[in-house]
What we know:
This protein is an all-alpha fold and 206 residues long. It has helices spanning 4-10, 16-28, 36-47, 54-85, 92-115, 119-131, 136-164, 169-202.
Amino acid sequence: MIDWLRLAESLISSPWLYAVLAAVSFLDSFLPLIPSEPVVIVAGVYAASGQTDIVLVIAATTLGAFLGDMVPYTAGRLFDRRLLERLPPGSKRRAAHDWFARELDARGGFILVTTRFIPVGRYLATLSTGLVGFPLRKYALFVAFATASWSAYTALTGYLGGVLFQENTLLAIAVGVGLALVVTGFIEVVRRLRHRRNAVTEQPRP
């Protein structure tokens, strides 16, 4: 298995770094074992000392993540008819499928943007979005915003750590990863609270 973090550090001063960032972000969109966040954070840390270009770090990461998110969506669209054939009307699985389709139609942007910051959530959301036949144009628009936001946030947390701890690269990386984990946890808490509130609101009154 490729050690993406070590590979990125070995190419910090090389233009090939941006190809690595695009590749790892692409693969991380549908392969859970690929650790894109630490790699992007490291690139952001070195941007604070001028060894990498923060704009190119964000651009390469956004491009890779956007293209990567198209893979599970496309796979979902290819199998959506087969899925519906196995979900007879009136079944619980069909009800869950229809519920998610309605949720996406009502707040697809919120779901795709917030789950992009949650490693496991991003895979499930993008695949499920394809399975329920969410429109490609809307999906591409929301995913473009989601991946750009995620890329900027991840790279800039590393950059902030690099600015604060220029004399200690390891500490800067640790701070960047810590910030990323805190914000990701906060987003997940907000998402769960919002989901519970919506569930209570939508319960039929007796």
